[in-house]
């Protein structure tokens, strides 16, 4: 059993192991900036040198982003799961692209080569397009309410609708996203050709080569070699069961060696549908009654909206993974589980995998629009678990779950609680902020990111 007020996770220098990766990114970026200023060549204009530094930092951040999506097994634990690594990948890429704007304004070299200038244009245009395209699905959470109304009105115009058809959905974005390394290579070569600081300080040049070469090496590994090392398992669709109007459970039966997973993890699932092969990360909701695994799919957009129509029993599937570190065993003796909508999936996996009674006191908050489609199963599990208390919140009936209501219902000192959350991103950000303000330890707040790509 977890001890009172402690978090049974591996720590390094007093910090949870899952914080090592983010801390390393911050330290590396900061140290690289300090190094640039310490070795600034005599006579080099401060603004011009700062502009070149920002270009170098941009290459560093994009190289880090390449490492984070390399799918190497050592990356996942130090970020707390591949979903968290993907979030940091996006943060690094967005920050790197933002740094390019002042870099273009400040960095100037009268002896810049024509090839270097061309490569700079290719890199900036390509990387900016990738970032904008990546954040488009999240525009609702990034804009204030008045701006959202303007955007919604513009979405109904014909030019925007034509652009949306041209951009396509997730699969087309994913194909274009694979060009990231080529745009990085263009920016990297531009720096080698046109950075004036490299001539005066060879150490800057070779550190830049090491950083850019590392990022491009990881890109080459992911595109050319990763598929030969990553575990993949052959499955077949055995059942497609509608659970609610916008929710289905897909049962997958193994055709060979089955996937070994822990409850709460997710897998990268490749499904051959009537529209061709589709790829998406799905949380594993537990073993399927037919044998194999079950995934729960909500119509969130792209091909998931049409999944019940295009997936039929007998169709082949390939499952990669498992991934994720969303594990209730990392919690304390007093736990809160919060499931919003399809965010209930990993919690179903936990309940379905229980053997014997829970050793922790758990308050499980299930929020849904209308009665939860899994209410019967959850109630049956609760009957055999005296330490499990289930709280039902029906948002369609006007009820809204609040962090204050959660803390009041548990009746436990916040610093002793571990909180596990799955659900809409905006909701989880609000809850995380409120729990931290109430005294829940940062290391004891865990969430699953399922809106990542």
TrEMBL record:
The chain crosses the membrane at residues 20-39, 59-79, 119-139. Signal peptide: none annotated. One of its GO terms (molecular function) is flavin adenine dinucleotide binding. The keyword Flavoprotein applies. Gene3D superfamilies: Nucleotide-binding domain of ferredoxin-NADP reductase (FNR) module, Translation factors. Pfam families: FAD_binding_8. Its cofactor is FAD. Residues 230-329 form the FAD-binding FR-type domain. CDD domains: FNR_like_3. The keyword Nucleus does not apply. Keywords: 2Fe-2S, FAD, Flavoprotein, Iron, Iron-sulfur, Membrane, Metal-binding, Oxidoreductase, Transmembrane, Transmembrane helix. It comes from the Bacteria. PANTHER family: 1,2-PHENYLACETYL-COA EPOXIDASE, SUBUNIT E, NADH OXIDOREDUCTASE HCR. This is FAD-binding FR-type domain-containing protein. It comes from Pseudarthrobacter phenanthrenivorans (Arthrobacter phenanthrenivorans).
């Amino acid at each position: 059993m977890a001890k009172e007020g402690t978090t049974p996770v591996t720590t390094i220098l007093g910090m949870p192991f899952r914080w090592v990766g983010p801390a390393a990114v911050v330290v590396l970026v900061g140290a690289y900036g300090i190094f640039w200023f310490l070795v600034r060549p005599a006579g080099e204009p401060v603004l011009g040198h700062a502009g070149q530094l920002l270009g170098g930092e941009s290459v560093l951040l994009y190289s880090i982003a390449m490492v984070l999506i390399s799918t190497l097994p050592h990356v996942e634990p130090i970020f707390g799961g591949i979903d968290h690594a993907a979030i940091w990948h996006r943060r690094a890429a967005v920050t790197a692209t933002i740094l390019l704007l002042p870099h273009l304004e400040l960095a100037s070299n009268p002896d810049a080569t024509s090839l270097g200038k061309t490569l700079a244009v290719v890199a900036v245009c390509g990387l900016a397009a990738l970032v904008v395209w990546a954040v488009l699905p999240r525009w609702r959470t990034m804009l204030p309410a008045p701006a959202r109304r303007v955007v919604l009105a513009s979405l109904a115009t014909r030019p925007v609708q034509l652009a949306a058809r041209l951009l396509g959905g997730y699969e087309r974005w994913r194909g274009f996203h694979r060009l990231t390394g080529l745009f990085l290579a263009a920016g990297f070569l531009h720096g080698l050709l046109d950075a004036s600081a490299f001539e005066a300080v060879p150490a800057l040049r070779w550190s830049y080569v090491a950083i850019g070469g590392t990022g491009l090496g990881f890109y080459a590994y992911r595109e050319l070699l990763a598929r030969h090392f990553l575990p993949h398992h052959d499955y077949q669709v055995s059942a497609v069961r509608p659970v609610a109007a916008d929710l289905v459970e897909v049962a997958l039966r193994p055709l060979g060696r089955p996937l070994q997973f822990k409850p709460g993890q997710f897998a990268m699932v490749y499904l051959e549908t009537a529209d061709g092969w589709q790829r998406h990360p799905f949380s594993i909701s537990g073993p399927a009654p037919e044998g194999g695994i079950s995934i729960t799919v909500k119509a969130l957009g792209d091909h998931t909206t049409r999944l019940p129509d295009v997936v039929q029993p007998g169709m082949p599937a390939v499952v990669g993974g498992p991934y994720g570190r969303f594990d209730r065993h990392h919690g304390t003796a007093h736990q809160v589980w919060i499931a919003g909508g399809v965010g209930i999936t990993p919690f179903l996996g936990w309940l379905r995998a229980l053997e014997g009674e829970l050793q922790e006191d758990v308050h499980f908050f299930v929020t849904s629009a209308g009665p939860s489609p899994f209410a019967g199963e959850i109630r049956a599990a609760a009957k055999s678990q005296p330490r499990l208390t289930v709280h039902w919140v029906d948002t369609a009936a006007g009820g809204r779950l609040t962090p204050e209501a959660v803390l009041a219902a548990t009746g436990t000192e916040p610093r002793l609680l571990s909180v596990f959350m799955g659900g809409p991103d905006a909701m989880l950000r609000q809850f995380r902020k409120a729990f931290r303000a109430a005294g829940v330890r940062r290391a004891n707040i865990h969430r699953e990111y399922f809106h990542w790509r």
